[in-house]
Amino acid sequence: MTQDPLHTKLCDMLEIEYPIIAFTHCKDVAVSVINSGAFAVLGEAMHTPDEISADIQWIRDRVNGKPFGVDLVLPASVPQTATLDDLMAQIPEEHRSFAKHIKEKYDVPEPKGSIDLHQWGGLNQEMARAQLEVLLEERVPVICSGLGSPAFILDAAHERGIKIFGLIGKTRQARRQLEAGVDGIIAQGYDAAGHTGAMGTFSIVPEVASIAGDTPVIAAGGVTTGRHLAAALCLGASGVWTGTLWLASRESDVDMIVKEKLLAASADDTSYSTCISGMTMRTLKCPWTEEWAKPEAPNPLSAPYQMLLSSDYIQGANDHRREDLMTEAAGQGVGFVTSMKPSRQIVFDLVEEALTAFEERTGEAD
Ligand SMILES: Cc1cc2nc3c(=O)[nH]c(=O)nc-3n(C[C@H](O)[C@H](O)[C@H](O)COP(=O)(O)O)c2cc1C
After folding, report:
1. 177 C-alpha vs ligand 1 centroid, how far in Å?
2. DSSP-assigned states of every residue in 325-345
3. Please, what's the largest Cα pairwise distance for the chain?
4. What CATH architecture applies to the domain 9-359?
5. Which residues on adjacent β-strands are paired with residue 23?
6. Do residues 107 and 128 make contact, with C-beta atoms less than 8 angstroms apart?
7. Is residue 262 within 8 Å of 283, Cβ to Cβ?
8. Of ligand 1's atoms, which has the minimum distance to the CA of residue 146?
9. Which residues contact ligand 1 via a Cβ below 6 A?
């Protein structure tokens, strides 16, 4: 092979060695990935503007000027502005009593303090807007929107030299964002952890690549090995965007109980449901997802109401480290996450496996 197959236009755009983007909530993972030659995007949708500002500084202090991204959620379908009490008041009695039934059946403990999910930028647009202001002010090199079109911030971002990436689950969303002028598009398939659409990664990536022109397409959903990376590039992507892969890494701040669950899990252990946030989401199965899947369960509420309903369960389980109750977003590629490697090693293994996969195909392995 004469050319480096892993050197793509995404590498040139982001000034990185490897076309790998880690989505993570953990600053240590982000720094390790960035300093290994790949790119990291820090998920900050659950943080206050002050926390976001501090996290940006923390990363800047450790990456020697290398670029990085921050991800928020900007859903257009949630209320403009609303207090927690306003939102809570709209949860129907039937749903409250089903949540109470789960709580009693599994002896779900009360959260110990404030509830992390109540900070979520997806609860109302005002909250997301305040988070966004910090990213603009800080001139974060790349801003990503995990939910909702980022088209409305393109001008403000570009004026400040910031690149905007949008994450989509449907080709028509990709088309709209490309027409608006995003700098990169993350085509995320059904296999993915977290909020995800119904189209498979193998279908959505080449479809979006076929309409993206020069804009880099980044494949997401189920990428947990170098073979996935190689395949994604062959499908027309310029890189991969990965989430599940980093959760059980050495640096990751995910609870050790959840790390063990992830290491033991396979695709069958994931659930795809609206019962956590009101939007389709893939997580590890847990009593909450199993109960809402039963025929007697009410239909989950829309966003953000279902998130408010599930947040007590999730926080109670986490605060008391109840192994039987805890869950986490996890994709169908989780079966390949089998050991607690340093993030740096994960990057290098992905690169080596991908190069081997390419060599095997071109007969240059022996
Ligand atoms: C624990 C966890 C939390 C996530 N939260 C978000 C989020 O807040 N915003 C977002 O854009 N994507 C979020 N995602 C999805 C990732 O950005 C990514 O698209 C997904 O993990 C890709 O699929 P994979 O897990 O199979 O690699 C999350 C993923 C995980 C694993």
Report:
1. 20
2. T---B--GGGGG--S---HHH
3. 66
4. Alpha-Beta Barrel (3.20)
5. 41
6. no
7. no
8. 11
9. 23, 43, 45, 71, 73, 146, 167, 188, 191-194, 220-223, 241-245, 247, 328-329, 331, 333
Whole-structure pTM value = 0.96
Query: Counting every residue, how long is the chain?
Result: 366
Which of 23, 119, 258 gets mutated to test ligand 1 (max ligand atoms within 8 A of its CB)?
23
Q: Is 302 exposed, middle or buried (0-12, 13-18, 19+ CB in 10 A)?
A: middle
Residue written as token pair 């820090």: 42
**Residue closest to 304 by CA, chosen among 84, 157, 12:** 84
Strand bridging mode 69-72 / 39-43: parallel
Cβ contacts of 277 within 8 Å, gap of 6 or more? 122, 195, 303, 304, 306, 307, 310
How far does residue 188's CA lie from ligand 1's centre (Å)?
Answer: 10
Encode the chain (366 residues) as per-residue pLDDT tens digits.
558 999 999 999 999 999 999 999 999 999 999 999 999 999 999 999 999 999 999 999 999 999 999 999 887 766 666 678 888 899 999 999 999 999 999 999 999 987 776 666 667 778 888 999 999 999 999 999 988 889 999 999 999 999 999 999 999 999 999 999 999 999 999 999 999 999 999 999 999 999 999 999 999 999 999 999 999 999 999 999 999 999 999 999 999 999 999 999 999 999 999 999 999 999 999 999 999 999 999 999 998 899 999 999 999 999 999 999 999 999 999 999 999 999 999 999 999 999 999 999 887 644
